[in-house]
Amino acid sequence: MVARVRVALLSREFPPHVYGGAGVHVEYLARELARLVELTVHHFGPDGPTDGPTGGPGDGPGARPGVVGHEPWERLAGRHPYTPALEAMSVDLAMAAASAGADLVHSHTWYANLGGHLAKLVHGIPHVATVHSLEPQRPWKAEQLGGGYALSSFCERTGLEGADAVVAVSDAVAHDVRRCYPDIDPARVHVIHNGVDPDDYRPEHDTRVLERYGIDPERPVVLFVGRITRQKGIEHLLHAAPFLARGVQLVLRAGSPDTEQIAAEVAQGVADARAAGHEVVLVQDNLAREELIHLIGAATVFCCPSVYEPFGLVNVEAMACGVPVVASAVGGIPEVVDDGVTGLLVPVELVHEGTGTPEPRVPAEFARNLAAALNQLVTDPALARKYGEAGRQRVVERFSWRGVAERTVALYQALTG
């Protein structure tokens, strides 16, 4: 029976410590997998109670995974840029050892890929590795991690090349896996898209979060949600601010910055836009999930100006909330946003400069094109509403976590016999 398959799921993030799309993926996938297999989640951090959707209404005790936290070796503590990578490797050792008794190990992101590979070697079990992004395509992380970037690249390459199956979260990611790691047999690469829970992410019209930050619910809101990092393209959205229609409020729910340098750049961009008379609201407080859903649901248009986006889960979340999306046509985004149906895609030609950070070949043109697409929707409420309703329908039909889990378990069965 499927229920007898014992799975060790390895992840850096798990509730209550979730900060990005990969963490959200693991959080919801674990809930659904726990209905189908015997699941234990191994994550970075101390043992303790979790919050989040690790069980659903009416589910019995078997619908909740076991959860084990693992902390890094304390002797690695320090302030060097490479220290976090070494700490991650020490956690990988602990997670590999703790995976004893599992029939299969499933790792997520480079943080846990090495742990999955080691568990495969020491316990003789299949290793499934899910790719949410690829280190060779994020060379700007050397700015953040220093020599730790060489370590993260080593962990990812070792884990993926040795995995029995590699799960890509989009067709675009599958293509990138084959290009970046040609030694991986293409037959071992499987595409299973991300998902969203439409019962959690749903159309909401609660304006309390807007009012808290002085956002006028009666005027158009263009919303960005993401970390302050090169790949998310927040600076390009700020450059688009001068071209937005009069009265538009640009709201940036911006997570913690990767580096002090990019934090300073974004702060300066916000200051410049405000000085020029444009309304920009920067929200950096931690918001509870329900508050974030209220913020998304109150937006007129959601904007994703990423220059690198393997899938773009945040776009699915916005669509589930009934909000139309304007996004750059990069990576896996075109597999999510149906151009002219659930939102608008903005073409952009990217080049790699310096450390290899993707940049629009003509940044000013990209900014103007973003603004033009956003203006098309904020000035036509009926069209925005039509796209939002179509987006919600697309999510319900194509991006459910239960379907993701079922496809994942089918892969487990194929590997464990």
Question: How is this structure best described in words?
Answer:
The protein is an alpha/beta fold and 417 residues long. It folds into two domains: 2-195 and 400-416, Rossmann fold (3-Layer(aba) Sandwich); 208-398, Glycogen Phosphorylase B (Rossmann fold), CATH 3.40.50.2000. It contains 15 helices and 15 strands. The protein has helices at residues 21-33, 83-98, 109-123, 141-145, 148-162, 171-180, 208-212, 234-240, 260-275, 289-297, 313-320, 333-336, 363-378, 381-398, 401-416; strands at 6-11, 38-44, 66-70, 104-108, 127-131, 165-168, 189-191, 221-228, 249-257, 280-283, 301-304, 325-328, 343-346, 350-353, 357-360. The strands form three sheets. The chain has a seven-stranded parallel beta sheet, sandwiched between helices. A six-stranded parallel beta sheet has the order 10-9-8-11-12-13, with helices on both faces. The protein has a two-stranded antiparallel sheet with strand order 14-15. Helix 1 (21-33) links the parallel strand 1 (6-11) and strand 2. 53% of the residues are buried.
Fold blueprint:
Elements: E1 6-11, H1 21-33, E2 38-44, E3 66-70, H2 83-98, E4 104-108, H3 109-123, E5 127-131, H4 141-145, H5 148-162, E6 165-168, H6 171-180, E7 189-191, H7 208-212, E8 221-228, H8 234-240, E9 249-257, H9 260-275, E10 280-283, H10 289-297, E11 301-304, H11 313-320, E12 325-328, H12 333-336, E13 343-346, E14 350-353, E15 357-360, H13 363-378, H14 381-398, H15 401-416
Helix pairs in contact: 1-15, 2-3, 2-5, 3-5, 8-9, 8-13, 11-14
